[in-house]
Amino acid sequence: MRNQSTTRHRAAAICAMCGARAIGRMPEKLERRRVLGFIGSMKTLISVSALILVAACASHTPYGPAKSSGAAGYETQKIETNRYRVSYTDKDANRSHDMALLRAAEITQLDGRDWFEITGGYTDQDGARSDSRTSVSVGGSTGSRGRSAVGVGVGFGIPVGSSGGNVTTVIDIVTGENPKPDRPSVYDAMSVDINLRGNAP
Predict the structure, then answer these.
(1) Residue 167 resides in a domain
(2) How far apart are the C-alpha atoms of 148 and 123, rounded to whole Å?
(3) Of the N and C termini of the chain, which has fewer Cβ atoms inside 10 Å?
């Protein structure tokens, strides 16, 4: 009987010790689960952010010639010696502006010249053309059909407050060789190319 009682006591003590150890490990397990859950949430967040970034990059048509009139990309028309009309169409007005300047810089360098001057231009969105602007300004104005525009640089305005549809920036340029004239409407072709090339995927 004494042996049986001793055995029972030992079994009870072992069970108590196991229970205590299990209880002691519960906070550790809960903490581990919480950390793993946090890591899983961060991985999901990173994956979603990456998808958003890819979608944003894919929303722009790669820089290049337009496949047809009015399609995304650039179009170039030679008017006379050293004089061109350049246009760029994109869904983003700022990108349309930058890529038109980049194309103007490319044409200037292909022409064996150093600088180009914007002599005029305009922006067009869904057939609503903003007024041609020839002064240097950054501020609001009202274009044709009551459209709002902001002058950026020289020769044209960028529509604001509008959404949807392609935006086409059109600029008329004259190319020339150094020395470069000291006028705000004159751009150094190489500098423009270097500064804007990174925006052209």
Answers:
(1) yes
(2) 11
(3) N
Residues 110, 32 within the same domain:
no
Contacts of 200 (CB under 8 A, 6+ apart): 62, 63, 99, 102
| Domain carrying residue 48 | 1-59
The continuous run of DSSP H or E covering 170 comes out as: strand 167-176
Segment 101-121, tens digit of pLDDT:
999 999 999 999 999 999 999
Residue 179 reports pLDDT greater than 90: yes
Asked if the structure places residue 64 within a domain, the reply is no
Q: Are 66 and 153 in contact (CB under 8 A)?
A: no
97 within a domain of the structure (yes/no): yes
Which residues of 26-154 form beta strands (DSSP E)?
Answer: 73-80, 83-90, 115-125, 128-129, 140-142, 148-151
pLDDT of 189 over the 80 cut: yes
Tally the C-alpha atoms within 13 A of residue 159's C-alpha that lie toward its C-beta.
30
d(CA 115, CA 168): 23
pTM comes to 0.59
The residue among 59, 84, 106 that closes a domain is: 59
Higher-pLDDT residue of 191, 44: 191
DSSP three-state, residue 180:
coil
Which is more confident, 165 or 96? 96
